[in-house]
Amino acid sequence: MRLLYTFLFYLLIPLILLRLLWRGVRARSYWQRWPERFGFIPTSLIPQSVWIHAVSMGEVQAAVSLIQVLRTRFPDQILVTTMTPTGSQRVREVFGDSVQHVYLPYDLPDAMTRFLNRVQPQLLILMETELWPNLLYACQARAIPVVLANARLSAKSATRYQYIGGLLRQMLAGVEVAAQTKIDARRFIELGVPPSKVHFTGSIKFDTRLPANFSDKANKLRHQWGKNRAVWVAASTHEGEEEAVLNAFCELKKEFTNLLLMLVPRHPERFNRVATLCKKYGFIVARRSKGSLSSQTEIYLGDTMGELPLLYAACDIAYVGGSLVPIGGHNLLEPAAVGLPVIMGHHVFECEEICRQLLKVGAAQQINDATQLANIVKIYLNDKILTKQTGEKGRLFVEQNRGALERLLAIIDEI
After folding, report:
1. End-to-end CA distance of the chain, in Å?
2. pLDDT tens across 52-101, in order?
3. Is the pLDDT at 357 greater than 80, yes or no?
4. Cβ(313)–Cβ(391) under 8 Å?
5. 134 Rama class: left (phi>0) / alpha (psi -120 to 50) / beta
6. Do domains 28-209+403-414 and 214-400 have the same CATH topology?
7. 126 exposure class (CB count in 10 Å sphere: 0-12, 13-18, 19+)
8. What is the pLDDT of residues 148-167, one digit of tens each?
9. Residue 317 in 3-state DSSP?
10. Which residues, 6+ apart, have CB-to-CB distance to 4 below 8 Å?
11. Residue 387's closest CA among 343, 348, 351, 326?
12. According to the model, what pLDDT value does residue 25 have?
């Protein structure tokens, strides 16, 4: 089955390259560093002991606390790979030259061989659910230990994987799985991973620590927006989702004329299109990348990278995107950690357990459409005490669930 997968992958290479060309029309960084995607990494890269793969910016952000600890234990021995330009950019923003970084090659045997011959890692840490057959096979052949960190497996993905159960068991033979939730752990075991190799550690997103001056920065930013102005953030939104947010905002503006919407699309190549969409609705739009906003600004577009935690901390209420469209939802813990009431749609299959727990402790609300979204935001805007109490429940929930990073590091230390 792996050979069939490899054969099909080679056949698809022309289409994959065409997709890179197409994506590069909107984000020129997709036209760069193609050799790395085939295992031809820069000659300046030296062999590294610890290799961490985080596919995109979200996974990089989740891995920051882990990488920071590993950097102190293995100085000048850390390689971080990503697959997207946004992930690459985030690695450079956070770590600069203190870690080495390249793109992960496509999952082709020759590309992986070239890559591993050069890097020679002693340990691979895969963030979340990056399961590539040839990558894992090559690591097994070279006796490179693999940890699947912060592992998650939705019911939808588990059903799909059942069709390749034999290949999956081969892929995960010897892999240590550090699962985010007990449900994730059970699903890995049901797919054939030995129970002794599956560990419930919790999500390391609970252990993300904010900088010491973070609160001061958030207060300064909020003051620039207008200290007495209510601010609602809709973050990590996708195609087809901004319309629901803007429709809800139209309804809210009838009662809350001074309300500011902080709108943060998920992908940078969509920033311009979303800005145009907001203007079509008749709103006055300012962009974060171009500086501050005026008192007349109605929508502030978050078109910068890596600032989402700060933007959350400067707002009052958070809607987390990827959940009114079938994406599966994004990180609900970031707004909860800074004491914001969390609102999400009904498509949360990528974070279902975290969603369930936030709802259980009364820190979140789940909605189905723009009308319900407007109604929930309206309730919070009319009741500041409820807003504060709900946000505090979320903050306490995050605090009480810290410790996943320590448990993950214990697994790594044992290896």
Report:
1. 30
2. 999 998 899 999 999 999 999 998 899 999 999 999 999 999 999 999 99
3. yes
4. no
5. alpha
6. yes
7. buried
8. 999 999 888 888 888 887 88
9. strand
10. none
11. 343
12. 87
> Domains of the chain: which residue ranges?
28-209+403-414, 214-400
Task: Label residues 14-28 b or e (16+ Cβ within 10 Å = b).
Answer: eeeeeeeeebeeebe
pLDDT for 212 equals 78
**The tokens of 342 are what?**
């969390």
Closest to 62 measured CA to CA, from 203, 212, 214: 203
CA distance 129 to 150: 8
Q: Is 59 a catalytic residue?
A: yes
Q: What percent of the chain is helix, strand and coil (3-state, nearest 5)?
A: 50, 15, 35
Distance between CA 262 and CA 231 in Å, rounded?
A: 7
**190 is written with which tokens?**
């049901």
Half-sphere exposure of 224 (CA within 13 A, CB side): 14
* Residue from 36, 59, 242, 334 carrying the catalytic annotation: 59
CATH topology of domain 28-209+403-414: Rossmann fold (3.40.50)
- C-alpha separations of 255 from 245, 248, 259, 359 in Å: 16, 12, 9, 27
| 313 contacts 394 by C-beta, under 8 angstroms | no
How far is it, in rounded angstroms, from Cα 99 to Cα 83?
Answer: 16
Q: Is 396 exposed, middle or buried (0-12, 13-18, 19+ CB in 10 A)?
A: middle
Element (H, E) at 44: none
Distance, in Å, from the CA atom of 190 to the CA atom of 193, rounded to the nearest integer, reads 7
SS3 at position 234: strand
Pairing mode, strands 176-179 and 260-265: unpaired
Whole-structure pTM value = 0.88
Nearest residue to 66 (alpha-carbon basis) of 82, 84, 53, 83: 53
Provide the CATH topology of domain 214-400.
Rossmann fold (3.40.50)
Beta strand 317-320 pairing with 342-344 = parallel
Q: Which of 205, 193, 176 is nearest to 357 (CA)?
A: 205
